[in-house]
Structure prediction request, 425 residues.
Amino acid sequence: MATIVNTAEEAVKPIQSGQQIWVHSMAATPSLLLDALVEHAAPLNNVSLLQLHLENAEMLTASYAKGHIRARCFFASHATRDMINQGVADYVPMMLSDIPRSIRTGEQPVDVALIQVSPPDQHGLCSLGVSVEVTPAACESAQTIIAHVNPQMPRSHGDGFIHWRDIDVAFEKSMPIPLVSQPPANEVAQRIGQHTAELIKDRDCLQLGIGAIPEAILEKLSHLKDIGIHTEMFSDGVVDLVEKGVINNHFKTNHAGRLVAGFVMGSQRVYDFIDDNPEVALLDIEYVNSLQSIIRNRQVVSVNSALQIDLTGQVCADSIGSDIYSGVGGQLDFVLGANLSDDGRSIIALPSTAAGGTISRIVPVLTSGAGVVTPRANVHYIVTEYGVATLRGKSLIERARALIAIAHPDHRDGLERWLKKSFPG
Ligand code: COA
Prediction:
């Protein structure tokens, strides 16, 4: 049974030097516990913080810099990106579906889990709320579970329940869940949304991420019917389509009638939508992102983005050159799932340029140090604001031509020159 304490400072007292700590991530980041950890860790050393993307975790940067805490990141965020690139924090490239498995097998040991949950219900069950992801695996492995009980945390259905008796230390404080606002879709995102939407049809089962492009795609799907959702995460655009009756999950062949995801991030509307809603199942990401569960659905369409693509179709999505930007996430899990699903399609949608149009994201060869997240053999469609390149089954030269046709016009001549030099025949 949980020991109830009054403050976050008291709650983190069991943490000791040398421990591996899992931090509940995304919009469920327990920022009050992290604030308290910064103070508590000052006399400690060799404390590892295992994490996905953390929201509002900038308070940790001083502890990282001083070496009291070392971040072990499966996904880089604002607070860790520079630290990773300076060698002060670690990046672990790993498919999202693999992370819980590696914790459960002890390959990535976890001693303590820091979590943020809803208050216990009449059965003593708290909910991991807006973010289930890897955290059930961490809670199963940790000897100590420390919880911030937040009455504003939604109670989600699915795998995110944890019994009050399994929590070791808890403190309660009400605070809003961080809202993640979407940038308004600019013209480039709108055009990408239009081209991508043309590849999606009635009864498709979608995986999409967060940001201006996924939201622009969802806006263009209002004419469709019987769309299903089986995705790592979702945001506001999905709620719009549920309300319009476009998303109803009726024809899913796995979890029919239910939206399946691992976490949500967005406005309060999304958090209210999942609260006590049995139509939404937030499940363990080892299951959500497993090939076995993805391919039980027909017509799986995965939509992901990229930072750079070479003319053979290799997709770099976690780094800019050798500088780590984000993470592997579930991109390859869903690309492979879409490829294997009956009538499935995998789509990588990205703007053709970066840095105000000065840099082409479609390049002859990847920048030195760039990480390939999706190998060229698995790429199906690439979409930019200039159209769709179908790469599956194409030769190297056919791929290069298809990609040049959707590159920004200002950069096409340079790409053509490279192509002529490399494939003079
Ligand atoms: N060279 C230099 N800079 C580049 C660049 C390139 N080739 N490509 C992008 N950038 C810059 C952008 O200009 C932008 O800079 P800014 O913040 O100063 O404007 C920044 O890098 C981020 O680019 P952007 O396209 O805005 O990124 P995004 O937020 O749309 O995210 C990914 C795109 C690829 C990083 C993101 O989708 C990701 O992390 N994917 C991997 C994980 C995944 O796919 N998971 C499954 C979906 S949840």
About this structure: The chain has a mean pLDDT of 96. The pocket of coenzyme A is lined by residues 209, 211, 232-233, 304-308, 317-318, 320, 325-327, 329-331, 354-355, 359, 361, 373 (CB under 6 Å).
